[in-house]
């Protein structure tokens, strides 16, 4: 029997994600890929996959799948209840599913995004080298729907397990470093204002960017009303549109933008932002 | 030229002109910088981004100091010929703004050789330079809510083709002939027909 997963329920949003398709920005193609990359890598290690295998990224859980053939799965991300044929089982641990078994991911108590890895990986066709769904450009498979049958790849390694695996913490307040530049000079008194600001994650946030609410940043008089010619953007760039309210760009960000970027959040801190629910407080700690 | 930091692993190079952008992009692409992930040209900048912890960003200044940004880059890419059908909804407007007949406008647009300066706005949307001066015209006052895929337009110093239908304010002169492969198809390899540095010509079809 072909190895496959059948989607029985999707929750609010379930997407196929791997490590994305970086290296195509010169064609206008966003990098995409798992927002909480360490969690996807961990899930893949737990089931014996290469870390770059494709899994499923869920928002607020609610995913239910049925295995057509025996496979090993793991659920990572924040703490979450997982049920195997209705019985509670561990997240952050390899689980064996027999043919016909059903796995259900509950809603995480905190945080947003859980990851499901399956031995062999989700083997939908690659587009530009990746299986990730890019919600900005529409590249990659469509968001999962009930009834979708996801083919699984060949199993290459046995599950390794792990001694101690910790769930992701999703605190109510995040403090993330911000390396100023390239356009910090557009903003008035920028270091002091950023250091004193407490932002709140907007419900408008998505895989393109984390939108922040709070006291708007003000431009210096020199740059007031000035237009920026579009320029390249990196993941983690904190762009400040005319409203003065920052947007932290995540995996599905546009490759260029016409508003100044005040600073960049280093890649290692983006996973925590990917788990920030609306209302989470965010402090950006500027440095030069 | 000025270098600006863009996080721990990327450098934004600010330049004076599209010609300098092309020269800087070519020099950086030829330098085999370790850990280079993306090289993104734009109208007045080149963004070079690297894998985390790579020494690449520290090597960018040296490469650019050794490069001659005034010399036009060697043409290494091939020429892409795009058959188009002139007669777009703004062809008369472009001709009257240019002070030319429609026939001369078509001959001017189809007679030039263009270069892909950069891509952006949407996957596969290439900004082509080399537009003859009379055709350098402003955007429409009111952008269209839907421009059909394959529409060929001009805006400012650029001409370009919409790879998919989208809102847009470019003045439309033509559309790609029906038998041309899509400009961008994520399931194809290569996905994009046009990439920065490519030469492009339009061929008028009846």
Automatic annotation (TrEMBL), chain A:
Q: Name one Pfam family in it.
A: CT_A_B
Keyword hit for Ligase: no
Q: Where is the Carboxyltransferase domain?
A: 26-288
Q: Sorted alphabetically, which keywords does the UniProt record give?
A: ATP-binding, Hydrolase, Nucleotide-binding
Q: Name one GO molecular function term.
A: hydrolase activity
InterPro entries per the record? CT_A_B, Cyclophilin-like_dom_sf, PxpC
Q: Which SMART domains match?
A: AHS2
Specify the protein name: Biotin-dependent carboxylase-like uncharacterized protein
From TrEMBL, chain B:
Tell me where in this chain the Carboxyltransferase domain is found.
Answer: 1-194
One example of the protein's molecular function in GO is:
hydrolase activity
Keywords assigned by UniProt, alphabetized: ATP-binding, Hydrolase, Nucleotide-binding
SUPFAM superfamilies the UniProt entry points to = Cyclophilin-like, PH0987 N-terminal domain-like
Coiled-coil spans in chain: none
UniProt xrefs under Pfam families: CT_C_D
The record's annotation in InterPro entries points to: CT_C_D, Cyclophilin-like_dom_sf, PxpB
Which PANTHER family does this UniProt record tie to the protein? Answer: 5-OXOPROLINASE SUBUNIT B
Q: What is this protein called?
A: KipI family sensor histidine kinase inhibitor
